[in-house]
Specification:
about 65% helix, Transcription Regulator spoIIAA, 9 strands, alpha/beta, two-stranded antiparallel sheet
Amino acid sequence: MKLSGSIDFRPKLLSSLRHYSMSRFKDDLIAGIVVGIVALPLAIAFGIASGVTPTVGLITAIIGGFVVSACGGNSVQIGGPTGAFIVIVYNIIAMYGLQGLAIATFIAGLLLIAMGLFHLGTVIKFIPYPIVVGFTAGIALTIFSTQINDFLGLGLSNVPSEFIPKWGVYFQNLGNIDLATLGVGLLSLFIIIFTPRISKKLPGALIAIIIVTVIVYILKEVCGVINVDTIGDRFGELSTDIPTPHGFDLSMGDINQLMSSAFTIAVLCAIESLLSATVADGVTGSHTNSNTELIGQGLANVAVPFFGGIPVTGAIARTMTNITNGGRTPVAGIIHTIVLLLIFLFLMPLISYVPMSCLAAVLVVVAYNMSGWRTVVGIFKAPKSDISVLLVTFFLTVIFDLTIAIEIGILLAVVLFLRRVMENTQIKVYSDQLDIAEGTDIDNHEVLDVAKGVEVYEIDGPFFFGVATKFDEMMRSTQSEKPIVRIIRMRKVPFIDSTGLHNLEILINSSQRDNIHIVLSGVNENVRNVLHNANIDKLIGEDHICDHITKAIAMANAVVTHNNGQ
């Protein structure tokens, strides 16, 4: 693989500032403030659920969000920690610690930058939709399962990370449900769900956190009635100091050990950020530079590990909040990070009073919204192959982990693509007569007589390894008696790979041993160059590679006539 053309890095911020105005700034200011308020509870909740502190979640949203807005290829994309990374981040920390997470995130950032430099921004969109839906639904179920302990107030300290053992422990401890904690969680859920019915612009999660925190504080600290775990109880006093950049040790052993996890983070980030950008383009009518967006996401993930942060990607919910509140340039995204920074500097001590069950309720709603159950139901009406792919990806995500699901999912994507190409590649056999206009829009049909002893095989599609085998099997099955000439019509073959060349060479050699001539017809310039580089022209003769079927059949008929005359 090589860089095709110049480096495609043109941040939207630069083009947006060329014609910027005060009225546009007012719109971006309002949108940025609203998005910052909406992002606050999510950044805290995602940080805690990922196995780090609320401070880390906020720092990630501030630094990562700023870099995404400043360097990304979408005008309204809001970057930060998202629910999709909770599972993979939690598992990395459990296995390799925070140092391992920093290394994996840093490598993932480099991989994303490489994807953008190698112009893979559009290729990543070719991952089949059932795979995306499958692992997104699997992540949603996994996130939901991680919140049961805090939502019900079970008080468990060593919950298994695996899905099935985790639920086994939950069922064994259902008798330990704390009713006060459950009540706080249910009240939070009620507020989050019904706030949008009052006004869609009100951030339900933030309203729930404010109301429930005040109620719990009064009942707990003033009245001494209940004892519900809060962020302060779990994490102690939260720091308001901006972390200084720090390095981390990087060795080949660490890279080899964490490359799989880093690859998962990179692919997941690419998919989620480009999906978010595509949704945003559909609403705003703008156009995302996919390669620049990948580079911007990569730079964000390279930066955050030096401040102790977790992976960053484009967030669909926050991006849509930005759009609906009038944001149209990356300035809105930058303002949202400034709002979060001000909250971090001046209001962080108040966050200590937020109940853990309230944050659990926030994540339960996030999991529900991520699940896309209506989409899942819709796919069950699709072909069985799509259903199978969805179920395989879903269960791999839930029962095993996201790394395996991503890797198997991409493998499935490749297999499905090759299968569909093979299904759409047709191989036709002609004898006696051939209509040269068949399969085209040409009205003038010219029928050519094919002499007895001439077989014509037409390949409609790329001649790659799967089709090469299919062609070989079909040719063997259609032979009734040994022909004198075989014409392989390649007018609709856009390319030929090494396996196709190998099979073609075997066919030529075996045919020549049986005194059968091979003629290639309709070879385009690209395929002809490949054949020349492989010395196929020397093997069959330059005159046996024809640019049109009329020449090929004329040659074949002449060979048959000459052969019969002998």
